[in-house]
Amino acid sequence: MNRSEKAAVIEHIKDRASAASIAVVTEFKGMSVEELTRLRVKLRENGGECLVVKNTLARIAFTDTTHDSIKDRFKENCAVALGFEDPVAVAKAVSDFAKTSKLFVVRHGSLEGKVLEAAQVDELAKLPSKPELLSSMLGTMNAVPTNFVSLFANMIRPLLYALKDLEAKKAA
Q1: Is the pTM of this model over 0.85?
Q2: What string of DSSP letters covers 75-98?
Q3: 50 Rama sector, left if φ>0, alpha if ψ -120 to 50, beta otherwise
Q4: Which residue of 12, 80, 99, 109 is most buried, as measured by CB atoms within 10 A?
Q5: Other Cβ atoms closer than 10 A to 87
Q6: Helix (H, G, I), strand (E, B) or coil at 3
């Protein structure tokens, strides 16, 4: 790889890392191409991607990005999973894949510039996803007016029953 190709790779990684909200550094030594392809498909479905790069190029590319804090932690064979939409979904995808694969290991990560250890990435994966949190919040927001209407209906209903009884007595 000549100097201009390296510069292009560094620029590509830097652009992707700057746009990502989460970066998870993983170890994939000994994995087959099919397994790595399954991981990439799973990440793509969850709004992320997986990059396999040389450590030196990754250190240079991650400098002056959101994930600058992990640039010095690139050692041995590693792949970087980047998430652009929902960081929890990417953490879940990586964590679930690590549980099913004996060769794939989560080393550490960075969420919005904050360093995460492997255990913290697993804890992040246990959180509900963004759609689940939104639906929970909307359910809570909807409960307040619904309960308010029910409360007033329950206050007025006995009065309506009493008026109906008076009307029936007067008609008889």
Answers
A1: no
A2: -SS-EEEEESS-HHHHHHHHHHHH
A3: beta
A4: 109
A5: 27
A6: helix
**Tokens standing for residue 96:** 């679930």
With bands split at pLDDT 50, 70 and 90, how would you rate the model's confidence at 155?
Answer: confident
Task: Outline where DSSP puts E strands in the chain.
Answer: 22-27, 48-52, 79-83, 105-111, 114-117
Tokens of 28: 């994939």
Tokens of 18: 């700057």
Q: How far is CA 27 from CA 135, 136, 144, in A?
A: 35, 35, 48
- The answer to whether 66 touches 7, Cβ cutoff 8 Å, is no
CA 29 to chain centre: 25
Q: Which two tokens stand for residue 167?
A: 């009307």
Mean pLDDT, rounded, for 89-99: 92
CA 58 to centroid of chain Cα atoms: 22
Q: Which of 89, 113, 115, 93 has the alpha carbon at shortest distance from 104? A: 93
- Give the model's pLDDT for residue 81: 93
